[in-house]
Amino acid sequence: MYDENGRPYLDFFAGAGALNYGHNHPELKRALLAYLERDGVTHGLDMHTTAKRDLLAALREYVLAPRGLDYKVQFPGPTGTNAVEAALKLARKVTGRESIISFTHGFHGMTLGSLSVTGNAMKRGGAGIPLVHATPMPFDNYLDGQVPDFLWFERLLADSGSGLNAPAAVIVETVQGEGGINVARPEWLRSLAELCKRHDILLIVDDVQMGCGRTGPFFSFEVAGIEPDIVCLSKSIGGYGLPLALVLLRPELDVWSPGEHNGTFRGNNPAFVTAARALELFWTDDLLPAQTATKGEVVESALTAIASKHAELDIAVRGRGLAWGLAFADADVAAKVVTGAFDRGLLIETAGADGEVAKLMPALTIGHDELGEGLEILTDAVADAAH
Ligand code: PMP
Fold this sequence. Notes:
- This protein folds into 2 domains: 28-282, Aspartate Aminotransferase, domain 2 (3-Layer(aba) Sandwich); 286-385, Aspartate Aminotransferase, domain 1.
- The model has no long low-confidence stretch (mean pLDDT 96).
- Helix content is 38%, strand content 14%.
- By secondary structure, it is of the alpha/beta class.
């Protein structure tokens, strides 16, 4: 990116995960311009336009069919939180139960339902949220392995005197993005999926930030071999940074009546066009996940080197694919690192409950030179912050 004076910046923030394919990808831009040139429908509500047809076909052909997945697709509105709200509402309607289980440090959006399943109190802004019927459960490693996963929860469920209402659904990020790049182990995710199955609880994976290849495979949950009942997608599904959200639901869960859940901008056809083209460009072969894995190794080794060079800062390195975090013991150091990186021309953001994590999410399409350059800037910024 360049500022108005022509000063260059490397963007390792990538629209908080909305730009997995980079800024202004030429092929996506071409598809968008061609659509606008031929006066394609821009706002289509529920019209079955050619743009929507092509996106649904691309999703089936390049994403769902190769993975043996069968989901219906709902267009809940333009943003991630719209997908989460629709998922929560659907789970409650399907099961006839009200309670939703969420996870410590999870983040799901800024509207009331999604905020009520968000862990970070700062994000809830002292506004009397969470709502009733949302219960946090410890995310992987939250209890430092001292309590066997989910045992306590199963006891609560089995005990009619526990006071726990049987939940409609569990909502989880497989890697918590805003929570500070907290990575759930595949075996933990499998246990969670089995728990949900045993107790007839719907499993919602919020892949708004970690989907579309951010962790390597298209869906972040593929690493665990699980099949969620409902999946929320947004951010990079639009391909070009245009607003778009999707809810994927097992076909038998589709109990919606027409008009029961919608949003005016659910028919954002220009975003359908770039979304379809992005799926076609990047998901017809296995090149992107392999490249992401290779680049992820480069990031991991640079971050590990930073952490061992500055043992006094007590830095933890966490990540998967191309979502990485440097978790500092002191949030002030993380803030200094992010500011110092900006001054040197690298955009990164902080994450974590107290902003203690410097978070790196470069575009999956980043070149090796740019990746190396950004990591060098980061290395210098940490060295400066350490003094
Ligand atoms: N879920 C997750 C996992 C997210 O990271 C975000 C955004 N950071 C959201 C939901 C909400 O998306 P939006 O801001 O587009 O509403």
